[in-house]
Amino acid sequence: MGKQSQYLVNHITALSSAALLYAIMLFLCPSVYLHFLSSAGVQMYVCNRDHYGYLPVPLKQDQTLEEEEESFSHTLTEALIDFSMEPSKYVHTTPKEPGKLGCDEIFLINLKRRSDRRGRMLRSLAVLGVNATLTEAVDGKALNSSQLQAMGIDMLPGYKDPYSDRVLTRGEIGCFLSHYNIWKQVVQEELQQVLVLEDDVRFEPRFCSRLVAIMDNVKRVGLDWDLIYVGRKQLQVKEPEYWVKGVRNLVHPGYSYWTLGYVLSLQGAKKLLQAKPLNKMLPVDEFLPIMFNKHPSDEYMQYFEQRDLRAFSVDPLLLFPTHYTGEPGYFSDTETSTIWDDEAVETDWDRDGTKHRREQETEELGFRHVAPHPAHSDVPPLSASRNRDEL
Fold first, then answer.
1. Is the preceding omega at residue 98 within 30 degrees of 0, hence cis?
2. Strand locations in the chain, DSSP E?
3. Which CATH number among 2.30.30, 3.20.20, 3.90.550, 1.25.40 corresponds to the domain 105-386?
4. Transmembrane segments in this chain: where (predicted)?
5. Contact at 8 Å (CB) between 138 and 174?
6. Closest Cα partner for 282 from 295, 269, 270, 271?
7. SS3 at position 344
8. DSSP 14-30
9. Domain-by-domain residue ranges, the chain?
10. pTM, 2 dp
11. Of 255, 251, 253, 240, residue with least CA distance to 295
């Protein structure tokens, strides 16, 4: 090999080693890397057009090592949405002691045939140190007319989906029954406080510590509560949602969609069951606002006399969907189904309804909470990131 060729090889090797070193620095300690770039007078640019991977957020000066660990755990849960990562056999890690975040039980609802979602959620919960009980969802596609009749299931008279004008689907029946079965278990086992999670959620940073802090504050002030949304889609924008006096990051919710995650009390579970919703069924995320008297349809609410569910919502929210309508990887088991009383009529309305919903979301942008209590005025308002298509 000539001198010139050898020089090129050495030069390329040196550049490759330097690039690898910089990449390692950027991944392991982004704050040090950013300081290195600044000292060298190098301008750094962030490209949001293409997805290259994940980086932990650099610590602020006053943050602790525990907070950095929590931030990195969030980075891992984000990466797990798109990638199936297994721990390296060459790196020793001390597993977290799983906990229940102050709840008697944490239920994870998952369809047996959705092993991909189940695996991702179990890995994510392990990263967060959350001990959840896997609860097999009721598969609406497997329900036949005889089974529905035997369970006494009937659709709420006059119910129509607000977007597609269709009736209830079997997927929605399965979803409702999945939550309904958990409510029954809560009452049967007299569980005082549980967290219910669906299997298509992404966790916000510091999910565990933020939820625990909110529930501790709820207990401290003696708030009488039945249900607390942890993840939802706010639909009622004409009326403001007010902060709860004495509890930071908690609001009185209006009309909401989604049952991504919520904390439920024994008292709340009893109220939901006492409504006897199976013979006047509508989607579970329509049923809950009826029960706390915030549904816009008086026609629907007239079928439920007791609408005294004491509902609240975490704000900012701690859970969001992993995918939204129209995005790659999006799929809905409740929408892609058959209508409840005719197995021959299939539904796949979400693709056609995407444009309609996006137009509605545009109208919702700019809404802000009214904070009646000055002590809570520093709590962030609803963010625009919340205004996205529903599952």
1. no
2. 105-110, 133-136, 193-198, 201-203, 227-234, 250-251, 256-265, 311-314, 319-321, 337-339, 342-347
3. 3.90.550
4. 12-36
5. yes
6. 295
7. strand
8. HHHHHHHHHHHHHHH-H
9. 1-45, 105-386
10. 0.77
11. 255
